[in-house]
Design brief:
The chain has about 325 residues and is an alpha+beta fold. It has a single domain, classed as 4-Layer Sandwich (Nitrilase/N-carbamoyl-D-aminoacid amidohydrolase), CATH 3.60.110. About 20% of the residues lie in helices and about 30% in strands. Strands 6-7-8-10-13-14-16-17-18 form a 9-stranded mixed β-sheet. The longest helix is centred in the first third of the chain and has 14 residues. It is globular, with a radius of gyration of 19 Å. Keywords: Hydrolase. It comes from Coniella lustricola.
Length: about 325
């Protein structure tokens, strides 16, 4: 499978410039790679920006499915590169045909195929607190059969966390959904942040935030423990940059999970505006190795290179709640 993740730095409400910024990242990318993609994924609320604080604040940027600027961009890009395109956007739904009431609003992701047709529209199921200022919960996690990609489980950012952080840590709602629908592909569009200070976090923009990656992997633990004979590809497409006081973690990643092992096919730095290209027919960069003790670090072992260690117990997630210090970072049992 040939995958592209477009990681960039959109700003709240600056739609035209955000689209221009995404186009600029694509223009700098290798065009041969773009023309051979099976899927191109953009972050959560890619062109509107994310950090809205009320329905009034976001109202000028709400879009109808298949009719807004995000769907139009996805359609044009899908036709240009002959690929499936997935873009996160703030959705408005006219429900007046069902009953006399106000429109409904969702944090959504539209899926457009290579012929420019909208084939799916996923609505974020688990909302982060800032989503709750304007959006409704979607009904369940995404479960689509996408021609050329296969059975696809879809989520948006907070979906991989426990529900409202009130559900038990080990409920693993999204990961069990992936297993239940027997997905061979998992796509998560994200606006995942860090609470680290901007001046220190952004000093090394080309380096991935390995604490965030360690956290994401922990949230996939049931998939890893299932030890499936079939490889499950997991795409985590995040945004980067700063919106006001909010710092985003970047680190878009493509993982492969098979027989209890986690392979890393590719990842971007925390501050890179770039397209991550991955072909899963090629060998992975390396594997994530389990730590020996719960309090020890998660290791990333690239073939032939020294093994760097990264902290796995202080990663911050979409909901900005801190990871329980008692949770281990063991990858395979």
């Amino acid at each position: 499978m040939r995958i592209g993740c477009l990681q960039f730095d959109p700003q709240v409400g600056d739609v035209d410039n955000n689209i221009n910024r995404a186009d600029s990242v694509l223009a700098r990318a290798k065009q041969d790679d773009l023309s051979n993609l099976d899927v191109l994924i953009l972050p959560e609320m890619a062109f509107s920006g994310y950090n809205f604080t009320s329905l009034k604040h976001i109202s000028p940027f709400l879009e109808y499915e298949s009719k807004g600027v995000s769907s139009l961009w996805a359609r044009v890009t899908a036709l240009k590169y002959n690929t499936n395109v997935i873009v996160g956007y703030p959705e408005q739904v006219d429900v007046s045909h069902k009953w006399p009431t106000s429109p409904e609003y969702y944090n959504s992701a539209v899926v457009v195929n290579s012929e420019g047709e909208t084939i799916a529209n996923y609505r974020k199921h688990f909302l982060y607190m800032i989503d709750e200022t304007w959006a409704l919960e979607g009904r369940g996690f995404g479960n689509e059969f996408i021609p050329g990609l296969g059975r696809t489980a879809m989520g948006i950012c907070m979906d991989i966390n426990p529900y409202k952080f009130e559900a038990p840590w080990d409920a693993f709602e999204f990961a069990y959904h992936v297993l239940e629908v027997r997905a061979n592909l998992v796509i998560v569009s994200m606006a995942w942040l860090t609470r680290e200070e901007a001046d220190t976090f952004t000093m090394t923009p080309s380096e991935p935030d390995m604490e965030t990656l360690a956290y994401w992997v922990q949230r996939l633990k049931p998939i890893i423990r299932a030890e499936s004979e079939q490889e499950i590809i997991v795409i985590l497409c995040n945004r980067c940059g700063i919106e006001g006081d909010t710092v985003y973690a970047g680190t878009s990643t493509v993982l492969g999970i098979k027989q209890g092992e986690v392979s890393v096919y590719g990842l971007l730095g925390r501050g890179e505006e770039n397209v991550l290209f991955v072909d899963t027919e090629n060998p992975p960069l390396g594997k994530l190795m389990p730590s020996i003790q719960p309090e020890q670090d998660l290791e990333v072992s690239p073939a032939g290179d020294p093994v760097p260690t990264v902290a796995g117990t202080s990663a911050l997630q979409d909901g900005c709640a801190e990871l329980d210090e008692d949770e281990d970072v063991e990858i395979s049992s």
